[in-house]
Amino acid sequence: SSCASSIASTPSPQGIEELEAAYKEVRRENAALKEALHDLRGTAAATAASSAGLDDILATATATTPGSGSAAATATGTPAALGETARGGARVSSSMASSMASASWSCAACTFANCPLLPFCEMCETPKPAAEHCETPKPAAEQAHAEVA
């Protein structure tokens, strides 16, 4: 007990130096992470500004996918004839790909295309603009009541 209290009450120059060194290292790492995030945001903005949209990317991926439209199966067991190949070899139907592209919202801060259900940007966590929030569907009982009234 007396040993613990003497350690806690008397600051050690070596302990302070270790803390200062650790603090400087954390600050360096933080600066590096901020720089990487800045670079990613710049890359995302440049990518969004380019003429290639999601539909163009999906069309290119489909056109260059060997076996597209054949009965070959993917790793998930989905026949290739049922859809297009998206990132990672996953199969996405044409209608699903177009609805995903049209339903997403673009972040005003970083231009990332987000899922329409997210209230904030998945990339930079900027809140979704109020005008783009989707309305929550009313329960069927409330809809039926509204139609009768």
UniProtKB/TrEMBL annotation:
Full protein name: RanBP2-type domain-containing protein
Keywords: Coiled coil, Metal-binding, Zinc, Zinc-finger
Coiled coil: 16-43
Lineage: Eukaryota, Haptista, Haptophyta, Prymnesiophyceae, Coccolithales
GO molecular function: zinc ion binding
Low complexity: bias regions: 63-85
Region (Disordered): 63-88
Sequence ranges assigned to domain RanBP2-type in this UniProt record: 101-130
InterPro entries: Znf_RanBP2, Znf_RanBP2_sf
Classification via PROSITE patterns: ZF_RANBP2_1 (PS01358), ZF_RANBP2_2 (PS50199)
